[in-house]
Specification:
eight-stranded parallel β-sheet, alpha/beta, binds pyridoxal-5'-phosphate, Pyridoxal phosphate homeostasis protein, 214 residues, 9 helices, TIM Barrel, globular, PLP-binding_barrel
């Protein structure tokens, strides 16, 4: 059993209630990237069944034996040459961020007859080193995913600049989602997940606060 898991669960429920939302309105995505199994085991044994990973290959190595027991989300950048493996292995891809990737994912969905749930990543801080469509591109990109590529988009994801107040970024993501008819918002990490919940997050991606420093 994991003390940290219980603590994070309580904090998520409290933040949801404080925001006038049901205690179970927010899903915890446990970010297990780069963690040794002895850090992950207590969280898995505590009943956590939704995990986030940054890399396709690392995720396969870690989770293949337990794959049927968990929901797995790709939260790191996806190269088109890994799209086949990602569609085959992940339940959710949160980092759809360019037309070339949309096209390749659409082809893989056809070929494999299975469709991961998809989130569009928005680079709300317009940081050059960070993935994601810019806020001004977002509406057209979502429309292209749906219309040109026939992809069903479930929600939006963002990673605000580390040095910024995250609130304007979370609000911007919520606005883009609302005007595009998207109900799901993946936002908030170890240091700001309660703030993200106050801004409408439906899932939070928590790594170090659950498993310890990487
Ligand atoms: C690593 C990572 C997280 C988890 O970060 P923590 O600060 O350890 O909670 C969340 N989201 C993404 C996209 C990440 O790469």
């Amino acid at each position: 059993m994991s003390q940290a898991l219980n603590a994070i669960r309580s904090r998520i429920a409290a933040a949801a209630l404080a925001a006038g939302r049901p205690a179970d309105a927010v899903q915890l995505v446990a970010v297990s990237k780069l963690q040794p199994w002895d850090h992950i085991a207590p969280v898995f044994d505590g009943g956590q069944r939704v995990f986030g990973e940054n890399r396709v290959q690392e995720a396969r190595e870690r989770w293949t034996p337990l794959r049927e027991q968990i929901e797995l989300r790709l939260i790191g950048p996806l190269q088109t040459n890994k799209a086949r493996d990602a569609v085959a292995f992940f339940d959710v891809i949160e980092t759809l961020d360019r037309e070339k990737l949309a096209r390749v994912l659409a082809d893989e969905v056809q070929a494999q007859g299975t469709a991961p749930r998809l989130y569009v990543q928005v680079n709300t801080g317009e940081e050059p080193q960070k993935a994601g469509v810019t806020p001004v591109e977002a509406d057209a990109f979502i429309a292209a995913c749906r219309g040109v590529y026939g992809l069903s988009v479930e929600g939006l994801m963002c990673i605000p600049p580390a040095e910024d107040d995250p609130v304007p970024h979370f609000r911007m993501l919520a606005d883009i989602a609302a005007r595009n008819g998207l109900a799901k918002l993946s936002m908030g990490m170890s240091d700001d997940f309660e703030t993200a919940i106050a801004c409408g997050a439906t899932s939070v991606r928590v790594g170090s606060a659950l498993f310890g420093a990487r």
